[in-house]
Structure formats: structure tokens, C-alpha cells
Amino acid sequence: MARLGDFELSGILYAGCDFDAWRDKTDAWLRLRGLESFVSRTKKGEGRSGMAQRLKEKARDAICGRVDRAIIRRLPTAIKPDDHLQSFWRQLEEQAKPFRFEDLTPELRCKVYSSILSADASYNLSQWTPSCSLPAILSVCSTVRKEAMPVYYSSTEFRATCKVSGDRDRGIEKTRNTITSWTRSLAHGALQNLRSINLYVAGLPPRTAGPVESFGNLLQFRFSPVTGPTCDEWQSANPEFALHYHKSLNVQAKERLQKSLARLEKYREVTSLRGEVLVMAIVDILELLEDGKMEREA
Predict the structure, then answer these.
(1) Domain of life, per the record (predicted)?
(2) Domain limits at 237?
């Protein structure tokens, strides 16, 4: 079984290796076998002209014996048959260049971004601070950042928590400040790529016996360019607590929620806004909570 570093130690040409160093060693390899007319530095027209075809094939076989099979498979089937294999050397040098990520098509690059970013496809905004860093892939270079940023914001589920029991105004203001600071920290144009924000509202009245966090309501805001903003509501959704209570939003709260979404959709239809409406929906809900207009069923 091959070990790490075997390619380098074996002297085989592989993608990304030092081609100049490999070429010098291969030149010596050819000279020791009496094939000096085919060394890479030989210029066309030098050496013995009219070399027999079998000697040329012997030189090519000797060179191929020091080349990784992956490179051999990528060589063009039709290489100009010059006497000194100059086209063959040039093709080897081209195929041995380090693989460049940007050589992939945009579609394949996006698949790579999605695969990497889907490993952690949720983010808790309640833990966000100005010093929080983005995924490492977004810091590779400006090109990757520009391409991967929309993938990150469209595939990540952002989560926030708002506690409205006890000091209601303080809990709401804390959530509002977090959302505001977070959105201001985003790169220009990032908000339009948002597709999912969850708001867990803990402690909605009327109060039920038990831990405050266990009788909350999860509002799942989603955006689609086709359907616009939508919201699904789940009861007692905090997975950290036993789900003993199953109280939905009351009829009035649901109506206010739907009116808010309908108003945002009309506004979106006459603007170029997309994912930004999710943040606007969160702001609307915080205002309704602040006014005491969001309650659960009794």
C-alpha cells in the first residue's frame, strides 16, 4: 500500500510536483540509457535528425515510466510527432501544473461550497458577537468569497431566541439589538440571499406551570422567490426541554402574523427585495410582542 510521500520519493511526475527538478532527473535518466537526443532541454533541430521510430518510442516509454498514470491518462491522444518529443515534454509540463480550483466550472464550485457549508447548516444568532468569524472557506480569497457567500446565507438556518416572560421589554430589546448588529455586520448584498430565520419566543402568555423555556413557540420564517415570505409555527419547540405543553398561537396572533407577511409580500412585489424581508418580518414580530399582541391559546 502506498504511503504518504511515496510519489515524491519515487521520482514520479505527479500533478503539483516540482517539474523543473523532475525534468533534470529525467534528463539524467535518459542520458544513462543513451537517449540524450530526447532530453527536455534539446532544441528542435539539435542532435541526430531522422532518429529511428523505435528509438523514439523507447525514449517515450522511458519517460512515461516516470510519470503518474493519472497524468498519462490526461495527455492528448494526438501529440505532434516531432523528432525530439518537444510537444510531449510541453504536454507533460502542462498536465503536471498544480490543480486550480478555479479551473472547475461554476456549477461544480458551487457544489463544493454547498458540501462544505452544509456540515454546519445552522447558526445561533443569540450567541453572535461582533468578533464571530465566518466559515474559513469564505476567507480563502475574494473570488471564493464572492461565489460562496450566497451559498452560505441561502443554505444556513439562522436561529434567534426572544424571552418575553419577566422583563418583557428587556428580552425583546436584547433580541432586536442582536439582529440589528448582526445585519449591519454582513457584507453588502448578503441579506438578499437569506432563506431561513427561526425565532423561538419563550414565555408567551398565558403562563403555564413549568420552566419558561419549555412553553415557547417556534416561528420558522422562510423565503422563496416564487412563494415569497412564509411562516410555520410550532409549539413547545425548544429541544432542550421536555415538550409537555402544546399551546399554539391564538387566532388573533395568527391573523396578525399573516397580515404582516401579506404586507411584506406586497412591498416586495414593487421592490427588488428578497431575503431582506425575513429580517423585516422578525422586526414586525418583535413590535407585536412589544405591544403585547402575540399570545398563545388559553
Answers:
(1) Eukaryota
(2) 102-290
